[in-house]
């Protein structure tokens, strides 16, 4: 009896992709909401998108240390 893991692999790949997109969008939105310049919003969003878990953790750590703007 042979088991085909194609659907499981597709599900896991899509779940990782959705997590990547979600963390990047959330970090960019949160940075924008805090009044940061657009360049910083894009930089943080792309950083969180590319470095999947690490980007989100680093942003959450540095968010508290960033001085408020506006």
Give the total of domains: 1
Radius of gyration: 16 Å
What is the average of the pLDDT values? 86
Structural class: mainly alpha
> Level of helix content?
over 70%
Kindly describe this structure:
The chain has helices at residues 6-33, 38-50, 52-63. The chain has one domain (6-63). The chain has 70 residues and is mostly helical. It has 3 helices and no strands. Helix 1 (6-33) packs antiparallel against helix 2 and helix 2 packs across helix 3 (52-63).
Q: Keywords, please?
A:
single chain; 70 residues; mainly alpha; 3 helices; 0% strand; elongated
Question: Can you lay out the helices and strands and say which pair or pack?
Answer:
Blueprint: H1 6-33, H2 38-50, H3 52-63
Helix pairs in contact: 1-2, 1-3, 2-3
Quickly describe the structure:
With 70 residues, this protein is an all-alpha fold. It is built from three helices and no strands.
